[in-house]
Amino acid sequence: MKRLCMDLEACTACGMCITSCKRSALIQDIFLRPILVRPRCNLCGKCVEVCPTGALRFCDEARKPEVYMQGVGEHVCA
User: Fold this and answer.
1) pLDDT in tens, the chain (78 residues)
2) Which segments within 1-78 are labelled E, that is strand?
3) Residue 51 · residue 41 · CB < 8 Å
């Protein structure tokens, strides 16, 4: 299953992923990092394309230790 994952160490909180999302599926936490609003995400990949550090990517849910984006309030995939 395709999931959206984020490498918290690689994320620079630039906000490019958030502004690229036409469905407002990404919002910022208090540290300015993206949080996924899962019901809004259609896994189009625009956020993955614009991420300058490769912090956002698609991954396999069976792989570890990637951080899956679970949804609002959690940084851990769609």
Assistant:
1) 778 888 888 999 999 999 999 999 999 988 888 988 888 999 999 999 999 999 998 887 655 444 445 444 444 444
2) 2-6, 26-28, 34-36, 56-60, 67-68
3) no
